[in-house]
């Protein structure tokens, strides 16, 4: 593996993803991880990430003693390079000016740049610079403002770059990272096939010959892919429980059932629509809705588990970003409770099976293709656990859900039909409680207003509203009002996140 020691850069995860894209397994550990912890990962190369600190800060984060002495290639990025240089006896100074943004390398060469030709645009974000080289090192790249932009020591196999090769703003950064992998002599075999084989072997080992596995299906890509993987690993010792809470989109249940059953997954659907509606009756507070749905979900799931059981294992589609131990904790303010429906408490008395704990979402999508998950599920936008309940503002009723479901279907099908679906990270329709006056034919109408929302985002923490073409929006507006008679007004949400959130509740 390539071990990335995280010193707090916002780009650290990107480094790991780049290596994974290059078919090499890589893990992120906190910068100060013990030597022992690092060795556990069997490192064939180490990356020291960037970070907000200066090597002169009193509390500057540093790797554990011995890590820098390991006989593997080490690449320092930004802060990582400064740290490497300083440790080797070089000098780092606060530069007169901060270099931020794109910079052209005026010269470059050496092992890291092997095979790279022409212009090299590098993304910079630093205020400290290496001013004096440590012994044994040479400068292998520079920019106008930064004479020491990349360094290498071929003998000890220590490398440093002041810029960020992992971001898209460094277009040839991928080649540089590939060169580092070559230097590490690492086999690039982290492919979808390989991942699937390993995961299946891992599940079989954990579950044994007899163990029975329970899985909750949400209709999303993670749990669906997990169902396919587990079915391959343990066959019908897997029971996949799909709770239909009545808050799903049009035809969603049938779609998921067909796809999974067709692939040999033993799927049990629990129709709990009435039960959920009963508990949601008259509830208009968004957080209250989430609480009720979460609680009922667990209750229904529990009951199904009892009826289908006994089970020894509970499978969950936990992903790597949920478990990365990295510098700088999360600690974000609780804007919405975001409990995932399907996120079950751990005291259900099962052992957890979490095969995707080491994977990024892109990797799950890749193995989903290999396992034969249909593309319309595989490439689906995220859908919140509480479903349409938080898109139906105020108290939820069957009638309102029915309207929303039809509007959502027109919008989402329209996006697909116009080839715009994949340009959006998430798209949704909201049924507002607003009723207003309109005219259709010669008749006055007094009907609902729906809002359409589409966003682009990388991490869903911030988002931009998608600049959908006016003509497309016009078509959607016409179709919705014509096909869904309870609606006479369509608006498009042009607010980013922040200040708005993606969902309206
Ligand atoms: P917001 O609205 O907070 O949404 O900008 C960010 C992302 O989270 C999803 N979301 C939820 N997912 N349970 C979920 O499983 C929830 O209660 C929930 N609320 C929001 C939302 O769809 C978006 O992708």
Would you write up a description of this structure?
The chain is 32% helix and 24% strand. The chain has helices spanning 12-21, 35-40, 79-87, 173-184, 192-207, 221-234, 252-262, 273-280, 286-308, 320-323, 361-370, 375-378, 398-417, 470-483, and strands spanning 2-6, 26-30, 45-48, 74-77, 91-104, 107-108, 121-132, 138-142, 150-153, 158-161, 213-217, 238-244, 267-271, 313-315, 351-353, 426-440, 443-456, 464-465, 487-492. The radius of gyration is 26 Å and the shape is globular. The protein has 14 helices and 19 strands. It folds into three domains: 2-184, Rossmann fold; 192-378, HUPs (Rossmann fold), CATH 3.40.50; 397-492, GMP Synthetase, Chain A, domain 3, CATH 3.30.300. A hairpin with a 7-residue loop joins strand 17 (443-456) and strand 18 (464-465). The strands form four sheets. An eight-stranded mixed sheet has the order 2-1-3-4-10-9-8-6, with helices on both faces. It is an alpha/beta fold and 505 residues long. Bound molecules: xanthosine-5'-monophosphate.
Give a quick account of the main beta sheet: strands, pairing sense, barrel closure: 8 strands, mixed
Structural class: alpha/beta
What general form does the structure show? globular
- How many β-strand stretches? 19
CATH class of the largest domain: Alpha Beta
* Rg computed from alpha carbons, rounded to a whole number of angstroms: 26 Å
Q: Can you give the mean pLDDT?
A: 93
- Give the CATH superfamily of the largest domain: HUPs
Flag low-confidence runs: 328-334
Write the CATH architecture name of the largest domain. 3-Layer(aba) Sandwich
Bound molecules: xanthosine-5'-monophosphate
Q: Any idea of the CATH topology of the largest domain?
A: Rossmann fold
Query: What is the percentage of strand-forming residues?
Result: 15-25%
Quote the distance from N terminus to C terminus.
42 Å
Into how many domains do the coordinates divide? 3
Q: Reading side by side through the largest sheet, how are the strands ordered?
A: 2-1-3-4-10-9-8-6
Total of DSSP H or I helical runs spanning 4+ residues: 14
């Amino acid at each position: 593996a390539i071990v990335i020691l995280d010193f707090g850069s916002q780009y650290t995860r990107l480094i790991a993803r780049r290596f994974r894209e290059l078919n090499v397994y890589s893990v992120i550990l906190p910068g100060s991880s013990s030597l022992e912890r690092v060795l556990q990962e069997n490192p064939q190369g180490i990356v020291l990430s960037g970070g907000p600190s200066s090597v002169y800060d009193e509390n500057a984060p540093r790797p554990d003693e011995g890590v820098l002495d390991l006989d593997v290639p080490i690449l320092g990025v930004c802060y990582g390079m400064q740290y490497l240089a300083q440790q080797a006896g070089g000098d780092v100074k606060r530069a007169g000016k901060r270099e931020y943004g794109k910079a052209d390398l005026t010269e470059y060469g050496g092992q890291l740049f092997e095979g790279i030709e022409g212009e090299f645009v590098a993304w910079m974000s630093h205020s400290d610079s290496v001013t004096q080289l440590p012994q044994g090192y040479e400068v292998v790249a520079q920019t106008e403002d930064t004479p020491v932009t990349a360094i290498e020591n071929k003998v000890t196999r220590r490398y440093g770059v002041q810029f960020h090769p992992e971001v898209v703003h460094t277009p040839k950064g991928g080649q540089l990272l590939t060169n580092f992998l070559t230097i590490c002599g690492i086999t690039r075999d982290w492919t979808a096939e390989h991942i699937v084989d390993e995961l299946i072997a891992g599940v079989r080992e954990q579950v044994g010959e007899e163990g029975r596995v329970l899985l909750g299906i949400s209709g999303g890509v993670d749990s669906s892919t997990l169902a396919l993987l587990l079915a391959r690993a343990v066959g019908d010792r897997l029971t996949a429980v799909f709770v239909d809470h009545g808050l799903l989109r049009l035809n969603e249940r049938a779609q998921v059932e067909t796809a999974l059953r067709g692939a040999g997954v033993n799927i049990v659907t629990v129709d709990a629509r009435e039960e959920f509606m009963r508990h949601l009756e008259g509830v208009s507070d968004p957080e209250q809705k989430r609480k009720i749905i979460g609680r009922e979900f667990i209750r229904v799931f529990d009951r199904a588990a009892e009826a289908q059981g006994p089970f020894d294992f509970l499978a969950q589609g936990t992903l790597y970003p949920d478990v990365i131990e990295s510098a700088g904790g999360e600690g974000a303010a609780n804007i919405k409770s975001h409990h995932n429906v399907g996120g079950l408490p751990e005291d259900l008395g099962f052992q957890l099976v979490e095969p995707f704990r080491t994977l990024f979402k892109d990797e799950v999508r890749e193995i989903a293709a290999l396992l034969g998950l249909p593309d319309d599920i595989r490439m689906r936008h995220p859908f919140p656990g509480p479903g349409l309940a938080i898109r139906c503002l105020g108290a939820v009723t069957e009638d309102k859900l029915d309207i929303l479901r039809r509007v959502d279907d027109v919008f989402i099908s329209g996006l697909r039909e116009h080839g715009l679906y994949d340009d959006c990270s998430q798209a949704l329709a909201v049924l507002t409680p607003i009723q207003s006056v309109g005219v259709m034919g010669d008749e006055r109408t007094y009907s609902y207003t729906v809002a359409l929302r589409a966003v682009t985002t990388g991490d869903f923490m911030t988002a931009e509203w998608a600049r959908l073409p006016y003509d497309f929006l016009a078509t959607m507006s016409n179709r919705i009002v014509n096909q869904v008679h309870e609606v006479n007004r369509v608006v498009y949400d042009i607010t980013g996140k922040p200040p708005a959130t993606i969902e309206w509740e």
